[in-house]
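tool_call: predict_structure(chain=1)
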Amino acid sequence: MSNHKTFPMGAAIVLFALLLTVISSSPVCAASSVNVSLERDLYSDMEFWAAEGLIESQLNSFRPFAGSEVGSQIAAALDRCEAKKSASPTCRRIAGHYAKLFQGDVEEARFPDHRNNTFLKPVETFSLSYRYLDGPFSVYNQEGLHYSDGHNAMIQFQSQARLWRAFSFFVQPMVLYNQKSGFHSLQPNPNPSSAPPNGWSDDESSNFDVRLHKGYGKLTLSNVELLVGRDSLWWGPAYHGALLMSNNAHPFDMVKLSNPEPVLLPWIFSYLGPVQFNLIFSELKDDREGEQLKNPFLYGGRLGFKPHPCLELGASHLVMFSGKGRRDLSFSDVFNILYGNENQDNKKTDSNQEFSVDAALTIPNVKKYLLLADGLKLYVEWGGEDTGLPPDRRAYVTGLALYKLFDLERTALHVEYARMSPSSVPGSWYNHPYYPMYYKDSVFGHHAGSDADDLFIEWSQDFEKFYYKLGFDRERSGIQTRDHTQTKNQFFGEVGYRLNDHSDIRLSYAYEKVDHVDYEEDDSRNNHFLGIEAFFSF
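tool_result:
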């Protein structure tokens, strides 16, 4: 909620840096390529590559990655692997799986003159999944997908195409069945100024839905691309949640300007190292309640750079404004909304703004200093909500990851803590009378929501064919604004088996215990989740 000054200096710096990046170009211009969807295992695996020192220039805090960037990083990792005296399990996995899966992108990265300028892949990936929920289990970071009590089934596939060098296209249709279309939340939304929890609804009927989950086209010139369509974003270095933008919300229609591969800026700015940016604009067409304005605009920008192969820095800015009844905005009005120095509560230039800065330090080969593990990643994202400098409505996400623990190959331990409950105004994050930061009933940022914190722990291990995860997540809400804090404790496990290089099957189970349901003193609940999924790539 807005009562103080916004972040004009931070936003102006980001805008200036974005301009510098736009006018720069990479030495070798990549052909247009579609993004790799956020649910792919590639993202966690590439963090492992960085922790092993196999890649250095990639900026992990900009997701999704374009296929051209993935190809460049796989090529770099393969070169490092070939220089080793003996191939590690990670190198064998890259060469045996990812180099084949992204063969076209790798070849284009190594031989830019041998590009396949026009092609069509009718089916790139295909998946079948089944979910059974016993109780209103909390589902998050699933691109806004909602599952009901009882049986849920989903079929989806992805297709891509390229036209000449400049255009690429992507679609992801989905068929979804819910035994009940009512998604009963543990947190009802009586306050229309608050972002509702994931899946808030009262409908009890079954639901069969055919939808275009994601779909877009890209125009790529030099190393700058323009995306128009529907996709998901993740900004920041965290593994489990992000303050401003994550895949918790449904993919949204947007116009995005970005550079798909990091670039080196000229002159003294070369000391910044590889630089990357995103700039987005969207009109959100979802259901809004009470005083919330319909069809608001969403603007966002992110800038990141890597001054050292081990250190990545970034800044993000997100603004929601305009909407029904506030469309009469001049260019100067819009500029003042995005970069002005004063909030305009209850006026046509009112807005809801969030800003964050983040840092990630990845150190490979630390076994001689840290006996437990061979790779280490430390990260933090620190944000302010509608405030000046220094921000007094602070939130943060911080965590660490340890790789190859106890000399066990392909193991990882992730520990992450997030808090979105500032002492000054506990309920300020994501909430606003007119512009709550959500889309289709799910928060854009961290799934825990406002006046909440979240502790996440996960252990994972990957063998040649078999892999598994074990974890715990504790989410508390109403920390300072309720007499009884609602606490959700989730215990989860996942096992998977790779049938071959292009198909795998995984089984997952989770148990959730909720205390003080809906902030009631004597109410508790136990929920269960069971899922099975078969995934095929071509």
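agent: The radius of gyration is 23 Å. Proceeding to next step.
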